[in-house]
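User: My collaborator sent over this chain with a note saying "see what the structure looks like." That's all I know about it. Can you take a look?
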Amino acid sequence: NGTIGKAKEHLEQTAIQLTSDLSSVRGQAFVAVNKAIVTRASAVIPVVPLYIALLYRVMKDKGLHEDCTQQMYRLFSERLYGVGNVPVDSQGRIRVDDWEMSAEVQQAVSRLWDNQHEGSLITGGDLDGFIQDYANIHGFGYDSIDYSADVDPRIVEE
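Assistant: Without extra context I'll predict from the sequence alone. Here is the result:
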């Protein structure tokens, strides 16, 4: 019921209103519930970085990890287009957090969570993956970029 909860409620109400507004052209608006990913916001919400690091380890070990682009590709290719009716949950939301929220994944995350101790570094999680994703969203950590090279900001290479 906090700020984020109210924003989610507003988003869902807006999707309902937009679907109504688009009915004459058979348009629909959906809310998509996505997997936890590294963002500027998620990196500073208490315990979320820990959860994401543990989740990434579990999902990578199970071959289920998706970065943001891969997840959006799955949203469009498997949920929105080419599937007939768009699959939604009881609230009318498209769930792309299905792999994350599976019992098997959540139980594995819970087991790793139980091994964490206050004041200690993350145990068994993918802290390196979290740090890499955080660097990437800020334009750093790419092997293909020479960060020590001089750059003339007046020149845009094509």
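A starting point for your reply to your collaborator: The radius of gyration is 19 Å.
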